[in-house]
């Protein structure tokens, strides 16, 4: 029987829980983050989301094809005037819930001329309990996630340019999506997500990154951020770090204990960054 063991990511100075038999050093950053699903302390840092039903004005759920032969879902908001600008919004570990739809619509309204696609990385599953979120995030596979991202980019069509944003689980996927987009990428915002550590991969980035983190975060902690800054510098890539005196998930729209002041400041910086680069 496989047993849970605690693994120290020495190059990240970061604790995580993994299963015996997993080769962690070669595990994609998105799956390294998914290993946290088995950690009770990580679960405790994510209280159940407040009940909320989003009444959209401009959005609708869509289905699109993905390269692996399956369909994927997303909450889509189309710019009022035809635009080749797209923002991919990637949910935190609860899934594409009503809070994320609200956040996507806020970004849509504030950006003005950008199409917004909030991706469903859990293929229709939305967690309302920690046990469900643990199951969905822990079983998420990188290949499927990449296929969903690629499908969304194909849906946007030729000539589309992309910004990305995500929180927690989605923060790592925001960076991954920017790498997938290649030369079509214009801007990446990642809120306390697991950074890619492979300098060779980081060298392929074609867009600047805004990283938003909490100094009290014991998961994507300041040492992880310092390593990310070092690797991005070595790769010759643009990274702006905003560090708040806050814990992990401080700005998650699903979090009933979010830090309002830090969230508002981070959102203002996010909007300024996206407007300056997604053009």
UniProtKB/TrEMBL annotation:
Keyword Signal: yes
Domain Dienelactone hydrolase: 76-276
MF term (GO), any: hydrolase activity
Pfam families: DLH (PF01738)
SUPFAM superfamilies in UniProt: alpha/beta-Hydrolases (SSF53474)
Keywords per UniProt: Hydrolase, Signal
Chain segments annotated as coiled-coil in the UniProt record: none
Signal peptide: 1-18
Keyword Plastid: no
InterPro entries per UniProt: AB_hydrolase_fold (IPR029058), Dienelactn_hydro (IPR002925), Dienelactone_hydrolase-like (IPR051049)
Official protein name in the record: Dienelactone hydrolase family protein
């Amino acid at each position: 029987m496989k047993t849970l063991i605690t693994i120290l990511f020495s190059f990240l100075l970061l604790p995580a829980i993994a299963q015996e038999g997993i080769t962690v050093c070669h595990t994609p950053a998105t799956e390294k983050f998914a290993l946290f699903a088995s950690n009770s302390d990580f679960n405790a840092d994510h209280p159940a989301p407040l009940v909320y039903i989003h009444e959209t004005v401009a959005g609708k759920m869509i289905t699109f094809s993905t390269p692996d032969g399956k369909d994927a879902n997303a909450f889509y908001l189309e710019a009022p005037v035809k635009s080749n600008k797209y923002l991919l919004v990637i949910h935190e570990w609860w899934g594409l819930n009503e809070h994320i739809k609200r956040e996507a619509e806020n970004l849509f309204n504030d950006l003005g001329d950008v199409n917004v696609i909030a991706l469903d990385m859990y293929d229709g599953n939305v967690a309302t309990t920690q046990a469900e979120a643990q199951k969905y995030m822990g079983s998420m596979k990188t290949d499927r996630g990449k296929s969903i991202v690629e499908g969304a980019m194909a849906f946007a069509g030729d000539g589309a340019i992309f910004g990305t944003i995500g929180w927690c689980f989605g923060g790592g996927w925001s960076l991954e999506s920017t790498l997938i987009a290649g030369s079509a990428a214009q801007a990446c915002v990642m809120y306390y997500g697991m950074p890619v550590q492979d300098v060779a991969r980081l060298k392929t980035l074609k867009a600047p990154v805004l990283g938003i983190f909490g100094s009290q975060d014991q998961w994507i902690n300041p040492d992880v951020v310092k390593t990310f800054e070092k690797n991005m510098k070595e790769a010759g890539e643009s990274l702006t770090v905003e560090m708040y005196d806050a814990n992990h998930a401080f700005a998650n729209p699903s979090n009933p204990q979010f830090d309002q002041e830090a969230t508002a400041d981070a959102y203002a910086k996010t909007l300024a960054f996206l407007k300056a680069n997604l053009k």
